[in-house]
């Protein structure tokens, strides 16, 4: 099944390329075809905790050929968003970031040249998933925002699936700070258009030249719609055919798996 040809692809990970700790076999074949035909692609993920190197290692362990350059994370999107803000405002002064998050977030910010601080004041407060989130971290973020810091968050996921069940996602952590400060953050991850537009810049392609593939109507497909990118919903993960019928956001195409899509 192929309605038209695309010059590049944006791919979700969990539920599209792998499920839990196992690769989805059809994804291996699909990625192999993209590589063979030299069709550019990026894995676009809301995962802010892991670095591209860690994500590449994870896929290689599953049997997929992957390199760090194949990934664009919400942490990388936050770092690039701050860079764009700084260019627009031309402040010229030192930029400090109070980062609540794990290795992936801090590595992306440091790689962009920003100084990370643990206490207010700061130029920016950035929140990513942090499994050691505490009252002290929330307090320092609150003080920094009341002191004038810009407030950004990697993504608004309310809850995330784990082996134990659904647990608080980054959106829940961010919401506590938003409530304390009466300040809404700028979210950059899916379903926002920000991460998709930045990924398109990396590919060097226009929105109408790319297909976004994912398994979640609320994040992947909504992100494609908000950024003007065609979407393919695969029924290999979160959203199923019955969900599409009642969804406000509709994918451009649907498929049982990546095996049904001809590049």
From TrEMBL:
Coiled-coil residues: none
Textual note on the cofactor: Divalent metal ions. Mg(2+) is the most effective.
Keyword Metal-binding: yes
Membrane-spanning parts: none
Cofactor entry: Mg(2+)
Binding site for substrate: 190
GO CC terms in record: cytoplasm
Name of the protein: Acid sugar phosphatase
Source organism of the structure: Aneurinibacillus danicus
């Amino acid at each position: 099944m192929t309605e038209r040809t695309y010059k590049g692809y944006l791919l979700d990970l969990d539920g599209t390329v792998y499920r839990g700790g196992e690769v989805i076999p059809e994804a291996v074949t699909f990625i192999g075809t993209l590589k063979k035909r030299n069709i550019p692609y990026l894995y676009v993920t809301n995962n802010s905790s892991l670095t591209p190197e860690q994500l590449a290692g994870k896929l290689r362990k599953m049997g997929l050929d992957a390199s760090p350059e194949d990934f664009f994370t919400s942490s990388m999107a936050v770092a690039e968003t701050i860079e764009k803000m700084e260019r627009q405002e031309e402040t010229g002064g030192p930029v400090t970031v109070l980062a609540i998050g794990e290795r992936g977030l801090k590595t992306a910010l440091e790689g962009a040249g920003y100084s990370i601080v643990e206490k207010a004041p700061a130029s920016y407060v950035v929140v990513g998933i942090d499994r050691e989130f505490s009252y002290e971290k929330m307090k320092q973020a609150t003080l920094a925002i009341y002191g004038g810091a810009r407030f950004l968050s990697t993504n608004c996921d309310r809850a995330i699936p784990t082996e134990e069940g659904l647990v608080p996602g980054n959106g829940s952590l961010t919401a506590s700070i938003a409530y304390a400060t009466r300040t809404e953050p700028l979210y950059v991850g899916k379903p926002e258009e920000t991460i998709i537009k930045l990924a398109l810049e990396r590919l060097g392609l226009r929105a109408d030249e790319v297909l976004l593939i994912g398994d979640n109507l609320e994040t992947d497909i909504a992100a494609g719609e908000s950024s003007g990118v065609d979407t393919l919903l695969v029924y290999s993960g979160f959203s199923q055919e019955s969900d599409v019928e009642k969804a406000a956001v509709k994918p451009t195409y649907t498929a049982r798996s990546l095996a049904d899509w001809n590049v």
